[in-house]
Structures are given as structure tokens and as C-alpha cells.
Amino acid sequence: MITASPKLVSKIPSGPIESRWTRHKDSLKLVSPTNKRKFTILVVGTGLAGASAAASLAELGYNVKAFCIQDSPRRAHSIAAQGGINAAKNYRNDGDSVWRLFYDTIKGGDFRAREANVYRLAELSVNIIDQCVAQGVPFAREYGGLLDNRSFGGAQVSRTFYARGQTGQQLLLGAYGAMMRQVEEGRVALYPRREMLDLVVINGQARGIICRNLVTGQLEAYAGDAVVLCTGGYGNAYFLATYAKNSNATAIWRCYKRGAFFANPCFTQIHPTCIPVTGDYQSKLTLMSESLRNDGRVWVPKKKGDTRPPNEIPEDERDYFLERRYPSYGNLAPRDIASRAVKAVCDEGRGVGASGRAVYLDFSDTIREKGLDYIKEKYGNLFEMYQHITGEDPYKVPMRIYPAVHYTMGGLWVDYNLMSTIPGLFVLGEANFSDHGANRLGASALMQGLADGYFIIPYTIGDYFASVSLPKVSTDRDEFRDAQASVEAKLKKLLAIQGKKTVLEFHRELGLLLWDYVGMARNAQGLQHAIEKIRALRQEFWQNVQVPGSNDMLNKSLEMAGRVADFLELAELMAIDALHREESCGAHFREEYQTPDGEALRNDEKFAYVAAWEYKGDDQPPELHQEPLIFEFVKPTVRSYK
Amino acid sequence: MNKKKMTLHLKIWRQANAQAPGRFVLYTVKDLSPDMSFLEMLDVLNEELTKKGELPVEFDSDCREGICGTCGFVINGVAHGPRRGRTVCQLYLRDFQDGQTVTLEPFRAKAFPVIKDLVVDRSAFDRIMAAGGYISVDTGSAPDANSILIPKEVAEAAFDAAACIGCGACVAACPNASASLFVSAKIAHLALLPQGQPERHRRVLKMVAQMDKENFGNCSNHGECEAVCPKNISIKYIALMRRDYLRALLAK
Amino acid sequence: MALWPRSSVAKKFLNGLTGVGLTLFIIVHLAGNLLLLTGNPDDFNRYAHKLESLGPLLWLAEIGLALFFIVHIFSALSVYVDKLRARPVRYAVSGNAGGASRKTISSQTMIVTGLVLLLFVPWHVASLKFGPGVEEGYVAIVDGLLVRDLHSWVIEYFQNPVHVALYVLVMLLLGLHLRHGVWSMIQTLGAYHPRLTPLWYTGGVVFALVMAVGFLVIPIWIYVNGAKI
What we know:
The complex is a heterotrimer of chains A (642), B (252) and C (229).
Chain A: H1 20-27, H2 33-36, E1 40-44, H3 48-60, E2 63-67, E3 85-86, H4 98-108, H5 115-135, E4 160-161, H6 167-185, E5 188-191, E6 194-202, E7 205-213, E8 219-223, E9 226-229, H7 250-257, E10 262-263, E11 268-274, E12 297-301, E13 318-319, H8 321-325, H9 335-347, E14 359-362, H10 364-370, H11 372-390, E15 399-408, E16 411-412, E17 425-427, H12 445-467, H13 478-497, E18 501-502, H14 503-517, H15 524-544, E19 545-546, H16 556-580, H17 604-607, E20 609-614, E21 623-628
Parallel strand pairs in A: 1-2, 1-9, 2-5, 9-17, 18-19
Antiparallel strand pairs in A: 3-4, 6-7, 7-8, 10-16, 10-20, 11-15, 12-13, 12-14, 14-15, 20-21
Helix pairs in contact in A: 3-6, 3-12, 4-5, 5-12, 10-11, 14-15, 14-16, 15-16
Chain B: E1 6-14, E2 23-32, H1 38-51, E3 74-75, E4 78-79, E5 101-105, E6 114-116, E7 119-120, H2 123-132, H3 152-162, H4 169-173, H5 180-191, H6 200-213, H7 224-228, H8 236-251
Parallel strand pairs in B: 1-5
Antiparallel strand pairs in B: 1-2, 3-4, 3-5, 6-7
Helix pairs in contact in B: 2-6, 3-5, 5-6, 5-8, 6-8
Chain C: H1 8-33, H2 41-52, H3 56-86, H4 105-108, H5 110-129, E1 139-142, E2 145-148, H6 150-157, H7 161-188, H8 196-225
Antiparallel strand pairs in C: 1-2
Helix pairs in contact in C: 1-3, 1-7, 1-8, 3-5, 5-7, 7-8
């Protein structure tokens, strides 16, 4: 029933899984050191994937141009990752191994990821920690000087390395430092405050990008021999998300429209522990690290509509629903499972707080057993952050949490070499779809970004350069002029509408639509409704949006308008993908497909494939291509955390 | 949740671009919830301005949870505003009084030229980092992570310095517009770790030289930088930077 | 001038180092001056004579002291010029974050108090050290030796209320200078300790107070008790 599309050549090596990457590396063609300097690589985005790629490629001798929308590459949103990074070091002697990390990740992704990719990720996890420590990342240590670990959701071993609640920032500073060293060496040229607005494809190969200089508004064209896209996920389509305000899908969306296939767009992760929404004015949601679930217990009152303060609700009237439903993983159930369980108790009317859309995350037992200092040392900054936002003291009253959009497993389709369906366009990190299947486990995003950037792209990009012919191109070519003209026309169109609604209003409206119909639980009727609504909203946007200012200045409203315009298109694809996938898997929960006790019901026979969508024009529906997922080493089972 | 509504009077620095002269413009924003963040209040103002056909107030912000270091301006003469240990994005209207007049100015320093309104160019920090704010280690050449033993206390001390988010508030708050706190935090992070030792002297000399080149002022130990630092970075690192600098100078 | 450092840290270090020297000097200076209050004019005159009789050694010390002054002033001026250059557009509202801030009136007026002291020192040296001596008849016999009666001249000098008022004012400013200066020079030399730094921060305030009061009490006391000495 699943038909492999001839357009999707995944280049997955065969043979024993343990040696696939090694053998693949050995088979890749090399570029000689003297020839490397003849190639220019455009790296877009400077988060963990982008910065590590830029640094590693420059170290090899390539010319790298690195672009970011932030004022400094160090501010990319990887910086906000709190909890940690997984690595199969087995320093705890608790039975961890590369195989087990591989298995946990495949299972955590609900058997919708490629075995070979995930195994490679687990294998490389070990090198990442070594690399980061050598760079001076101040990971948590024990008194004896060895590295400390903690546990994360979906795992029964302790394999998460962390730097207080700032693991992302510390890892990014490491990668950023490595990149800045290459800037000093003259091998990386840095272009901050640039937004990539189009990809230039010449003779079927990705050969350049069009950027808007966000300070002057000027459009700039850059030519190169390959484009490495590291622009992150598209969760801001939901408006309220834990993403940074400037995170966007524009770069990947424009590449999609230039011919890169978009894979599994409906796989969007909703993180269970975020600070609940408090008002209509709210601009973003803040995550409370999953690591908190190591020591916090999640509960709601047993009774509906119980408005007593939490400390007045006696123990036997509390429902520790995660511990009850998933006794073996308890509060550390994976994100998709925990989020749905939270939604379920709130739907039953047992939610807490003013809105009734929240549950308690309670630390009082741990404080009693291990003392206040233990909590302070482990989570001090997270508790402080919670108090800043809510004005409540979580040392005294339990935190209130609710799920929020946090990550997108979907992204541009890439082969085993991380190359998209456009030759020369490589996609790394959250921007691609490759390793997390239908649900990402905690502490795996940092791992993937760095594996892609430090240890995969440096090998695979050379193979591409050595395999194809790349005549020199200049930005004077028609392809560059055409792309720049189309970008300019779009910007001018946005400014010319002069309607009555602001960009923010459209974005909020789109976000609510997605959250309600393409959120934690989806059904066919809702998805159809959403598709119609999104189309209507998109139409209204292009007639009634009000974008102030002009194109020749710093104009954040114009930046946002372009991004929201793209979200309005991508949202439809997300809904189309969710509608076509008639099964529940990982974060994609279709209400029609569930077990009697409300767990996800997968359909491997029909849907064990990667759904890669091809753009066919603005007026045409996208075309679906299937890449079958073949499980040779792990037998897909019902994913149970009970 | 607080139900009371608030009004704020905002005196905001408006400047069209780096070359244009700037001036203060007074705005009043009404019907605000005390649970709203300060930047959300500016979002509300910008929505109103957009609908009136005026240009919104440009300000930088990204993560809105106090970690990326993108946001930052001066509120009533204090960088990042009235609460200690927070960035602008971590301020809530409950930190202000109903009817209060609040003056917003961009970070002011020659090294941080104004781009527009409250947005400034902090790329000087990146150039200082490029001069030496790293450990020179090529990808793939690292030994096993546990082969370098680092006592917990040492790791914690290095982390305290590494917590710097590079927001530039230290420069903005310093009466001399000095970047010493930022630079010293970066130097100290690596100087405190065993991995940072081989390049310790070279690093401090190069980073200080670049700092001086960027038109920052000198440090007179006012300590205002530490007070406004959202990550509470201590000026003890400035002392460390000076010690290391002299040692490096003598060793040369 | 080749020795004059270009780096901010080194310039500041020179300022701190000379600050330490000048601080030690004023401690000694105050101790000597307090001899004016012993009730026996011989004490002060003996001390002054001993210093004078050091001859070349004293000159050397004085040249050293002058050098310290000059380096202190130049390094301070360079910090000030850098400051002016580093912030061409000033803030409309200036605030103090409180908490860990050590920004005080003292820390912000170092250049002003310093410049006042710069104006004061030549006047002070000219009017007292190079004031009337043996030739003008200010002679005393101490331990059988004929020496300059500096004591009498000082007493006479501080009978003028204008002199007293100016000295009191300048000594208050000296206190203000030391209040930030003392802890700051230690920090500048790179000494920081989690327990000791707060100690010398507060210690600096006490020291500044002691110095200011010690110095200004002398002219006041002389003025009040003038006739009786």
C-alpha cells in the first residue's frame, strides 16, 4: 500500500546498523585540502546546527558565509534550551548504550523515524559531549570532577548532561566561539541582521540566496556552491509557542516553493510543562524544563471544579494522573503522552487556576524529603523564572503548568547526507525532519543540531562537491535577478495593501485556529474546517493587512508580515498532512484513531512512511510522496510507558 | 490574577536612523493588565500606533524569557529597568505604578550606535569575542569528556561567569560606557577552566586590545554594571581580568 | 612617553598603583601634622627639621611623590577623556540601580575632587612648605639646634578664617575622593575577595572619614585655640 516515490532517494546505507555510518563515511568522496578553499558555502542560521556547521566547515578550509536574523549569532533560539543534552556515555553504569539511546529515540518517535539516522545520532552523541567539554562548556560536575547527569522523559537511564538550566546557551556559546575563531581566521564571513527571503536555484542546483538587510532594508544576493539551511522550526505558526519571537519558517518555506519537499509538517510537539496562558495580550509562552519532572509530581484534584487552594486539598483527593496511568515512567512519561494526559484531565473539568487550563507540578514531597537546598541548587533559576512571570513562589505553592507548542519534528525532507530534494541545499537541525519521528524526546534537539553541524555535514558536503560539476556563478545572472525581483514585488505588495488589521491580529487568529484544530488532538472534520478557515484568513490577509513604514528602513512590522504570510501558507499544509495521516502516532493524535483507554493507535500497514510534500504552484494542491520506513532492527510495537 | 487596569505614560526616544537626530515622544497607554509583560505593553502601543497610521516604536526582543540577550533599553535611567537580575522582557507591569511616567532610552554608548528608536548595534561584542573568546579546538579532536577532571566548585565558578548573555546592559549602565564586565566574564569563564589555560595569556591580551579598539570607556569601579546585570555577574571578574592581564603582560 | 601604556587596563592599573602610594603618603602626612596638636611646638618643629635635614633623600622622595601625582593625574584624565568619548550622547534620565552598585556621589565626582586637589596642592605647598622660614624670622631652638619655626607659621596661617574655610572644604573633598578611591584602587590592582572586598569597601568609608576629619580638625582647632598656642 505504501509506494516508495522515485523522487525520494534516501541514500540510507545497508548492512549492520552499528557500522552503517562508518561504512558510509568511508564511501563518501573527499575534496582535497587545496581544493576546499575554492568552494563557498552559505550557512543560513547560527543556532547550534548553523554555528557548529559554519565552524567545522571553515576548519576544513571551505569559505563560509554565515547569515542570521539576530543582531548577533550568539542569540539564536537554541540558547533557550534549558534542560540538557543526551549522550550514551553510560557514565552512570546504569545500562545505557548507543543501542539503548537509539531504541529510546526510535520508540519515543513512535516508529516514524529512520533507523539508520537515529542510530547515527545516538552514536555521535558521545562525540558531541567530548567536543563541547573541550570547548569549555561548563557542564555540571560532581565533587570528584566527573560529569554529572540527570534523567529526562522517555528514558529509564540517566544520560542527560546539563549546565544548570542553561544548557542551550552554554552549548551555543561553545559553537559560537568555534565559529568566531574562524571569523578571526578569515574563513567565516558573518552577516547578522539578514533575513533569507529566497533560494536561488541554477540548473537544478542551489547556488545562492536573496537576503534582506534588516537595518537598511536593502536586498542582497549571495552566490555559493551550496546552501546549508539551519533556520529552526516553524512552531511560531501557532503564534503562542515557546519559540523566540523572531523564529520563523520563511527560509524553509521559500525553499519548499523552490522545489524542496516538506516532510511530515503535521508532526508538531506540544511540551507538557509550560507556564499557562494568562491573557489575550500574551505574546509568548515560557517553558519550564522537563527536568523538573524528575522531582515534581503532576496532579489535579479528583473532584471537578475543586477551587480550594492546592495546600488545602488532602492527599487522598488528589489525582497524580501520570503516575496512575503510566506507573513505570510516572511523571517522566514522554512529552506527547504527558501533554495529552494533561489536556484530558482539563477537558474533564479538573483543571486548576483561573482558566481551568492548568495542572499542578508539585515539589513539596521532594522538598520534604531532600530539603529546600537540593531543589534550589538543581532548579533555582527555573523557580526564579517562574516567580518572575507568575508572581507566585513555587517553593511554597505548586507550579501551574499547561502544554504549549515547543518543537517541530517535521521539516524539509533530507536524505541520509542531509541534502534536500534540491541538490546543494542541505538542511540541518530542527529545520529538517530527520531524526525524531512523530515525537521528540527531551534533550535530543541539542544533540541533533550539533550532530548535524559538527559531525555529519563536514563529511557529506564534500561528497556532493566531489560528485557534481559546479561552474562558477555570479549574482549578475538572471536567476538571481528574477529571485530578487520576486522578493521585492512581494514586499512592495505587503506595504501597498494598507488595510485595517495588523499583522499581529492575523497571526493571533491563525495561531488560535491551529491550536484548536491542528493542536494536541485532531479530527477529520476539524481539519477540514481549519483548511477552509486558513484559506479564508490568507485571502483576507492579502486584502486587509496593515503594514506601516517602508521597505528602506528597519521595519519589524514588514519582517513579521512576510513571516506571517508564509505561516498562512504553511498552516494549510500542516492541516492537509494531518488530515491525510489517518492514524495517531506520537504528537499527531487523531481522535478517530485511539485505543479504548485513549492511547494513540498507529497504523503501520498504511502509514509507516515519511510524508514528503511537493509544491505544485499556488493554485494546485501539493503532491504527496512517500518514503517507506523500514524497520530491520527494532520491531514497531505498541508504544507503552505503562 | 490581578483584575485592576493600569495606565502608563511613556516618554520614548524616537530616532529614525543612525544619522537622524532623535527626540522624546510622549505616549499614554490605557487599560493595561498588571500581569502583562512590559514588552507586551509596548506591543499594545505599537498596535495602536499602526492602526493610527504612525510608525511603531522599534525595539529588539526575541526569546522573551531573559536568556537570548536581545532585548534591552534604559528605563528611568536604569538599564533593564527597576527589577534586579532581570532583562526588560522579564518585567511585568506589576513592577510599575498605575499612572507612572516611564522614560525609555536606548543603550547609549559610542560603541553601540543607535540603529532606530530603541534598537542599537552591539556587534562590537562579537568582534571582541572573535579576538579570542574561545578555546581553539577543531571539531573531532577532543579527548573523552571525563578525561578532564573539573571539581564541582570550579565548574560552578566558571558557570557563574559563563552565564553572561551579552545583552550589553553593563555598557549601558556604566557611567564610563565600559565593556569591562562583559569582557571579563568571558575571559573568566575560560580562565577558570583547565581547558582554557593554554591560551589564557594570549586571550586576555587580545580581547582587551579589541575592547579598547571598539571605543568603550575605561572601568572606574562604579559597580553599576553588576547591579543591572540580568545574570548578576560580579565585578570580581573585572579584578580577575586585570590580574590576568598584568600577568600576561609581565610574561610577554 | 614610550612607557605610557595604551591599554585601558594598564592605564587604570597605573592609576591604582599611584593611588596606593598617595594614600600611604597622606597617612604619613596626617600623622606628622597631628604633632601640631601635642601642645608642645617643639614636637612639630623637630619633625619638620628632621625631614628637611634628610637633604637629597628628601628631594628624591619629593620627586617620587610628584611623579606619583603626575601619573595619577594623567591616568585619571585619560580615563575621563575615554569616558567622554565613549558616550557622546548622554542619558536624559540618570538612575542608580542600587543593590550591588557602588556608584555614589564620590565615585562620580572623582575627576572633580581630584582636580580640586590638583589646584590645592601647589597652593598648599607654596603657602606652607615654601612659606616664610628662618630668613623671615621664624626661628625656634629645638634640642639645642636652630631650626625653622614652621609651627608658628602654621598657627599664624590658620588665624585667617578664609584659609581655614578653604582647607576644611578641600579636606571634605579629599574625604569624598578617598571614599571611592581607596576600595577602587584595590579592585583596580586586581584584588578581589568575596569576604574581604566588602570589608575594604566599608573600610574605605571609615578611612576616608578618619582622613578628612583628621586633616580638617587641625586648622579648626588651631583657629579656635589660636591665641593660646
